[in-house]
Amino acid sequence: MENSCEFAFPTKPKDVSLQELRDRLAEFAEVRGWDQYHSPRNLLLALVGEVGELSEIFQWKGEVARGLPNWSPDDKEHLEEELSDVLLYLIRLADVCGLDLGQAALTKIVKNARKYPIADQSPSSSSSSSSSSLTTSN
């Protein structure tokens, strides 16, 4: 029995668009008959599960340096896989909800830039929050 993957890349792509990922995910689900299971609720629950798996990677590591200089190649590969799972479920959820995730993200960056103008980024104003303004909930 031949094990072929119609979704394999001939070479490692340099830039992959959200649209390409969306299209591939939609096709992947359709040809397997999974669309019936891809309700917004089910996709959200799967996404939350994947975020949990991603969180487990960092759970006992303490602070981690940028670039992960002390991580093994296997640990970095595991992180890539879990980040990819989160991204793919997020893209699929947005698609099933009829949303343009790329445009929504750009709109949110502009909104956050207005909410947090450069002039407000003094040490005293930024120390009150440990999270990035790119991920605010408003």
UniProtKB/TrEMBL annotation:
Enzyme class: hydrolase
Cofactor(s) listed in the protein's UniProt record: Mg(2+)
Cleaved signal peptide residues: none
Subcellular location: Cytoplasm, Cytosol
Stated name of the protein: dCTP pyrophosphatase 1
InterPro entries listed in its UniProt record: DCTPP (IPR025984)
GO annotations of cellular component type: cytosol
Quaternary organization: Homotetramer.
